[in-house]
Write a structure and sequence with these properties.
alpha/beta; two-stranded parallel ribbon; 17 helices; 9 strands
Length: 385
């Protein structure tokens, strides 16, 4: 296992946290914070592991994440604040909870991402779907048993390094997207609205039993809730209000009494006011498909948000396009605090690390407060976009 000085990195993280805390209060620190959404699969590719090795071997998963933390602090040098290990499943929670077939990476296909094979193909399948009992469900018990093994492995090698993990499905609309596939999801919302509400109620109840089970297992405090709901962004405002808002709002009211966050790597421009005024959201992860000018106008002084930089420019052989994307986000979103620079969505496997490093360095350069027009070389280009 890689050596790791936990307390050294804790001190570095505390310095980064001060910058984050200031923008969270809608104040301006020395510069715009930068927290790049980099995860285990990216690290695995970076350090020479396949997805098959990463997802199927706890020692590889641990080594990958340890090396990833060190890489962030020592090489990428963004403002990482969280130091810990997590049990990484990929996007298969719904598959585990509802006993769907799951396609995992293997020797024959080592770069396949874990994936739930949709199991709802008829209206009768909705009737057959059962809210699980987490105390007797084999897959749920196996997940938490695996989490305990990871904790033991970390304790043995790294002492007090925190380990996190929770088996939870997405909120109802996105969970349905995993269970039935996006095409069937969006079609059935129009063809069979009553049956879809029946499905969403089951999914909401499943979310609640899994959340309550986690609290009972970990004795964690109730009050912080983050939802990841990409599928809902492709609904019209009217459809969102009908099929998403009642369920997500109820979950926030039950479990987000202190802090509410949302990851939505899809459109949110048309519902941004709902996030602020109805959900009373605290923090939002903004995808690339949104107009940051519109988002910043609604969120300014009310919601801490990050993201929107288009990761696709990192695949091009053009540092100027990277600079333009960085300037666009910081110019519109950063004044007055409340914004953390990041790529929209996540940093996908295959994005060149040298481009990522250049993006971070350039964001530090132009993101110094106060934000002034003369710092932006490409200002005239994006003011007319």
């Amino acid at each position: 296992m890689e050596p790791f000085n936990y307390y050294y990195y804790i001190r570095l993280a505390e310095e980064n946290r001060k910058r984050i805390e200031k923008v969270s209060k809608f104040e301006e620190p020395d510069r715009v914070p930068i927290v790049i959404g980099v995860g285990g699969p990216y690290y695995a590719k970076l350090f020479g592991y396949t997805f098959a090795e990463y997802y199927n071997n706890l020692e590889v998963m641990l080594d990958t994440q340890i090396r990833g933390i060190k890489w962030r602090f020592n090489w990428l040098k963004d403002d990482i604040t969280h130091i810990g290990i997590s049990l990484d499943l990929g996007s298969i929670s719904e598959g585990i909870v509802f006993n769907c077939k799951i396609d995992m990476p293997c020797k024959e296909n080592p770069w396949k991402s874990p994936w739930t094979i949709p199991c709802i193909k008829s209206l009768e399948d909705i009737d057959k779907l059962e809210v699980p009992d987490p105390y007797s469900h084999k897959g749920i018990k196996e997940y938490y048993s695996k989490l305990e093994k990871l904790k033991e492995l970390v304790k043995r090698n790294y002492g007090d390094l925190p380990v996190g993990g929770m088996l939870q499905i997405h909120p109802p609309v996105s969970a349905a997207g995993s269970l039935m596939g996006p095409e069937r999801l969006y079609t059935w919302l129009y063809k069979y609205p009553n049956e879809m509400h029946k499905l969403f109620k089951k999914l909401e109840e499943t979310f609640k039993v899994l959340q309550d089970y986690y609290y009972s297992m970990t004795k964690a405090n109730v009050g912080n809730l983050g939802l990841a709901d990409d599928h809902s962004g492709y609904l019209s405002r009217k459809m969102y209000e009908k099929f998403t808002m009642p369920y997500n709002l109820h979950l926030y009211e039950l479990y987000g009494t202190r802090y509410r966050s949302l990851h939505m790597d899809s459109h949110m421009d048309h519902i941004a006011d709902i996030l602020v005024n109805v959900y009373k959201i605290n923090e939002v992860d903004v995808g690339v498909e949104n107009d940051i000018r519109s988002i910043a106008n609604v969120f300014k002084g009310k919601v801490l948000f990050n993201g929107n930089a288009n990761w696709r420019v990192l695949l091009k052989d053009s540092f100027e396009e990277i600079e333009l994307e960085v300037e666009r986000c910081i110019y519109y979103a950063a004044p007055g605090g409340g914004y953390i620079f990041d790529n929209g969505g996540e940093t996908y496997v295959g994005i060149p690390p040298d481009r990522l490093k250049y993006e971070v360095e350039y964001a530090k350069k132009v993101g110094k407060y106060p934000i002034k027009k003369e710092k932006f070389r490409h200002l005239n280009k994006f003011l007319v976009l």
